[in-house]
Here is the input.
Amino acid sequence: MNTAFRFSLQTFKGNALKGFIKHASTSTENPKTAIVMMNMGGPQKTDQVHDYLHRIMTDRDMIQLPVQGTLGPWIAKRRTPEVQKKYNEIGGGSPILKWTEKQGELLCKQLDKTSPSTAPHKAYVAFRYVDPLTEDTIKQVEKDGASRVVFFSQYPQYSCATSGSSFNEIYRVYTTRPVPSRITFSVIDRWPTHPLLAKTVAERIRAELKEIPEEKRKETVILFSAHSLPLKAVVRGDAYPYEVGSTVQLVMEELGFSNPYCLVWQSKVGPLPWLGPFTDDAIKDYVKQGRKNFILVPIAFVNEHIETLHEMDIEYCHDLGKELGVENIRRAAAPNDHPIFIDALTDIVTQHLNGATAINPKFLTRCPHCTNDNCKKTKSWFGKLCKPLAI
Ligand code: FES
Here is the structure.
């Protein structure tokens, strides 16, 4: 069996130790334009795991539990040791911060050239569940004096549970402090069909296909794997499933539909029904159908994290692959700092900075069956905050 997980762990360790910057700043400490890179984040050290899980389990935008104020903290406490063990198995912490900082640094370097009228640019990281938390980042952005702030979601596809929760948090922060009138705010909420995103993922797949013996290459099944979602969120109208599907379609177009492929879903938790087919079940049943060669592709996350480094590499590629006796099972790297991906980020932000649309009308529209008051307040607030831009 040929697995890619060793490669990714070594690559991460090597890169992580080499040249990552300490802070997500670019050329200046006093930027004209702040690019706030929003994501859920991940614990960098195992002693952050409990607080991280506690914030997730008590976030009603992310997860709805009965008696959440009691049950959420209880689940967080109970799950802490097993999650800490997983982080220990991938080197002791999540690389999300390091990758996001690097992406921000490279992005802003390019933005200073592609959009000189809004330079200098500086990237900030705003995480939802771990440092640097959104509230602290917003304070820092204000302190540094930027006159233009772009809230840039690092989830290419929009889900109310992830991107939506981050935007709701920004609104919550500004219920406790005045909105600075000197700042022009705007939002990039999703970018599932950016051609350079598709090109990046296609390049990552091509690199893994090359490692499959030539006679097996054409029959290798490409499994695009994304974090699943409770079915009740899908029925409510969450855009995530079809936006993930739109990315998959573009990637396969880029590859000329060279291989069989399927979109599958991972990381289900709890007993309620979630969107499937699940990644591990799909591998098992494809093996029953006689398929023996696979490439797993993270399609909804732009950097390595616990679901790629542990779930995909260790649990699926190594453990499950061994159990099922597959011939080849490899995992495509996340976009990370691939130069085409940095070009994608640059193009998205450059177009946004030089366009007239401060906010996507889709973002201002709630899911048809949304009953979450946070969404209502947030979208109404952002609608007033982000005025059409003068170009
Ligand atoms: Fe989608 Fe509220 S749950 S907008």
Q: What stands out?
A: Residues 160, 164, 236, 238, 366-367, 370, 372, 375 surround FE2/S2 (inorganic) cluster (CB under 6 Å). The first helix runs from residue 5 to 18. Confidence is low (pLDDT under 50) at residues 1-27. DSSP finds 14 helices and nine strands in the chain.
